[in-house]
Specification:
The chain is α/β, with parallel strands linked by helices. The protein has a domain of 232 residues: TIM Barrel. 57% of the residues lie in helices and 14% in strands. It has an eight-stranded parallel beta barrel with strand order 7-8-9-10-11-12-13-14, surrounded by six helices. It has a four-stranded antiparallel β-sheet with strand order 1-2-4-5, with no helix packed on it. A two-stranded antiparallel sheet has the order 3-6. Helix 15 links the parallel strand 11 and strand 12. The protein is elongated, with a radius of gyration of 43 Å. The two termini are 81 Å apart.
Length: 696
Amino acid sequence: MIKTLLKYFIVLLFVFSFVFDSQGQVTTKNEVRAIIDEATTVISPYLDTIPQLKTGGNSTSAFTLMNRRVFKRSSSNEYLSEYNLQKSEVLKNDWGIDLNANYIENVNVPEENVIDNSIYNRRAQVGVDWNILKSGLVENRKEAQYYANKAYLADKLHLEEDKNLFFLDRWNHIVYLFNEEKLRMLSIREGLINEQIDFARSLFFLKHLSKEELLKYESTLAEIGGLKNLYLSYNDQYFYEIDTAIKINDLPLYDIDYEKLINNFNSPIRDTIKTILEEQLALKTHWSRNFSVNTFARYNTYDLSGISTTKRNFFTFGLGFSMPLPLNMKASNKLEAIQQKIEYSKYDDEAYVREKNILNLTYEYRYKLKQYIQFYQKRKVYEERVRKLRILKNSQSMAFNPIKAHQTINELLSIDLELIELKQSLYLNLLKIYSELPYTNTLDFVKNAAVPNYADSYNNVNKGVYVWTDAIRNYSGNFLQEYAELYNLNNLIIVQPKNDTLQAERYNWVPKNDSIRLEIMIGNNQLIYHENPKEYLQKVMINVGDRKINALHLDVEPHVFDDWQEKKVEYLEQYVEMLKKIRLYCDEENIELTVSIPLHYIEEYTMEIFSISDRVYFMAYENIKIEYITRKVTPFLKDYKEKVVIALRTNDFKNRIELEEHIQLLKKASTVSSFVIHDMESLIELDKKTLLNEEY
């Protein structure tokens, strides 16, 4: 009996412990789910709005950084240039003519035994001396040129001195601006971690996160704190005025243009300076400096003493010449020549050292640029990871892990911080090169860096897609958004019917930023007959609401009318008139006007269509031969190349690979770089068939 009771007790104890344990597990799971849901809400904005990384930018801002001046410093070369110019001006106006006068009074002149006219009581002379060569007209002209040359050289030295004077401030200013951007980025990372660390601790206590993962959060916070202190301590010491107009993200990513850099080494200014230095030697050793030729004219008056005292007045003219001994003249000229050779040999030596330094700096610059490109590609990988996580989140998949998502975002922001560091290094290096380059105050030796996107070998074209109502009806907005982003479809031409049953779903998936171009398509062939198309357009466009759009796209096709062949010219004239009216409407709404037309319209009318429209989409359907399409679009490339877009249809290709390859071949043959695909739904279907290895 006791054994039986003991057995029942053990069984009941086991049952109760199982029930309580099950309830505890359910409670824990609920807590974990609640934490994950809350963490997902916090991380969602970071997944949905990844900042785009720009490599283009404002070249004016970059030039401002290189030439910043926040204080005035006087320079000896500045005054020297002014002095030499004034000296040159004085010498130019000095003809070597001197006015002279003298007066002599003799005292106690004997009046006896004086031969007539041999002694005078007083004498006065007034005259003009003119030195023609040495110390006169010719030498002054040479000296004037010599000092004008010195002024030019002083100006160029002042330009170089200016770079040295302001180098340190420009350096510190660049560091300050980049530090501000780094501090902003660190604050975002810090805020993200602080938002997530409490969730991480809770999950750790609930045994759903390892201690190692929790320590990563804490160590990252400590690392961020150390970096913030480092950048703040530097910026706190900067006391000059800050140029708030310069934004780091707007600064272009530059590469070095070697050809133009070498041209700077052999610039006309450098040749001019060398020529001037040689000219200075010629001026200093000019033969006229060794010969003296002067002429004079004087008026004389004498008060004579003697038996028959009288006054005598007369004019005197004369010519003088002098020269050094030939032996000494040759030696002096040789000495001058050696001295001048020393001067421009020194100039050549300095130029060689500079060129060597610049080439070393250029190598360093390009090495940093290579690192930047590597990190840029790494960022692309993380962008793709974020995109996949966003898909999981938006589809409410149980596979979505907000902790993993947070780690991915944090790593992406860490890459961005490294990219800012590398960009700072590039600009500091650029400042060194600019400061070393002689006699230049432009950035003509740089060009925009070409950053390849290795994640997509077909990214060298602008690609868009027509979006019909079926695609919006059959696929979710999240799917369409991710699909467009995956394939870089950055131009969406979305059809807008007059009576819209999908108004809420039609545009809510399109990002509201400048990365996507949105065109509203209106397809009504009868619009060509409409006396006032503006009325119809307003009724259709009211469905768009206040959504910002880039263009109104017309898909009006008179060529499908039964009597097209007989009335082709008439229809084209009506089409052009319709476009002119709609152009006025677009101008009022401040939007572009784009159209889709076939390749076979009469060239004269197509030219008119180009002149009215902002873009023309050539529907290259059925006959997709490269030669045919290229021949048809070529007449419009000279004047309207930027307006030409080629539209291709998925039905004309077996699979997606063939379509993409055809686009590349067309780009190479026609030089057109903008394409649009007809249409989103059929493109998705083509992808499916490509994956299944089926022919379309």
